Fold:
Amino acid sequence: MPHFLLSRLFFLFFFLFTASSYAMSAQSAPAPVLAAKSWILVEQATGQVLAANDPDSRVEPASLTKLMTAYLTFAALKSGKVTEGQLVQVSTAAWKQEGSRMFIEPQTPVAVGDLIRGVIVHSGNDACIALAELLGGNEKGFVEMMNREAKRLSMKNTHFMNPTGLPQSEHYSTARDLSILASAIIRDFPEYYSLYSVKSFTYNRITQPNRNRMLYIDPTVDGMKTGQTKDAGFCIVGSALRGSRRLVSVVLGASSDNARAQESLKLLNYGFQSHSMMRIYAADQHLSEFKVWKGAEKLVGVGFTQDFIMSLPRGKESKIEPVLESRQPVLAPLARGQEIGTLKLTVDGELYGSFPVVVLSDVPEGGFFERMRDALVLWFKNL
Structure:
């Protein structure tokens, strides 16, 4: 088999799809048009975008901001920096927060576990400030933590000014960035994710319901967060698990509470019905072998260091054609995991995605005579 070509394989792809692009014409059914400003639907396991509309438009995220407040709190809990039973003194600033609240009071210390439930279930702005002051020293310090974490997670069009989502200039995010954050919570903190399915919470003898209507409509939905302000409209981040597949939807700028839930469900149903998840290559499975110049070995296996999986349009599985391209010449030394080529997938003749392939083993430099011989051969080949 030529080193620059991987002929028809009834196989496909995976997890490293950093520079991938998807041909929408390859979809088995057209994506729905939603009554909202922007939206995105993502395969949580891989980050693959199944449908989107204006996903990089900067918008006011409203209470979806609290996903980051929760992410940082979960990180502090997981690291042992704080515990769920730890009591927090409530400041006047937290107590006086406007908007949605869990009704904490300065005279009554509150447990971290109750505060995080207040953030998630009640969408409590007072709970957000109390946690921000605990973890960041003050609100400003916590906001700096939020922006550092957003940068680390590659949320490229997000900037936070507060932990609550109350309107403020230069406080913005996008549908794509919010999907990255939601997926990170699910991936990094599975032990706390179940809090997003809690339908009501009682604190200070006041019971408040979870504002996520989807929890009451579809039993496969188990999260995540709603938000609403005058400028943002009605927004929601939803997540559903059906079988082994989990999808994350972000819908921004809907016209009502009911509309955001219905539009998000429409998007989730589309994703589950129109696509199926497949594992194409196992980790370390050889797609091919490339010739190595100036190395201790003459050939090196290439492929993926993790299982290569992806969602495919239903009914299109047999029409996938992969082509493997290498970067020539391949020169030693090589290190396992080093990017060495590209796997291009087409569906019905249209490019569906391009994915980097890597070296599956180390190849040190060869001896002096091997290097000189190969250098001479390459010189003649380039004449």
Notes: The CA atoms of residues 326 and 341 lie 4 Å apart. DSSP finds ten helices and 16 strands in the chain.
